[in-house]
Amino acid sequence: MSTLLEKHIVELLRERNDKAISLLYEHYGDTLLGVANKVVRDEELAQDVLQESFVKIWKKSDSYDASKAKLFTWLFRITRNTAIDKLRSVNTKSDKEIQIDVSDVYNLGVNSTRPEFMDVRENLEKIETKYQIVLDALFFQGMTQQEASDELDIPLGTIKSRLKIGLRELKKIYGPTLLLVLSINLIP
Question: Where is the RNA polymerase sigma-70 region domain (predicted)?
Fold first, then answer.
């Protein structure tokens, strides 16, 4: 159930009244800044995320539907997604700034980091079968999570859980290197 304050803010947003942003900042700003900071782990970047989030909230105010989500949930999602996008953007930018030709780090060939050239398949057999099946479908057969759910007749939520647990089990075998290899080569 929406509070009177939430209803008032939503009404002001729909009217494109500047007071809506002031009220949002006053009542939700600190919490949303905390959400952004938790994702980007940088106070200055989190401030940028908060500002961008408020701009998106202002622009998307017509899309808010109180029957689908509470105001805070909607604000939280916009802020969290903006933070994730900002983090990806910053990481992509820093990746592009690395100059391979002047790097003194040993440059592994592409084939050496592909799972077919590692012993991932062999070590997959060391984890429970239910995790093996999901990881095989997703990584070696190239299925999406939804396709694996349909093909294996397993609920999508279970696919996601088994993926997470299966990767955690493989991480025990390989350490953090496995996740790096999988994220480079397999995870879209």
Answer: 24-89, 131-172
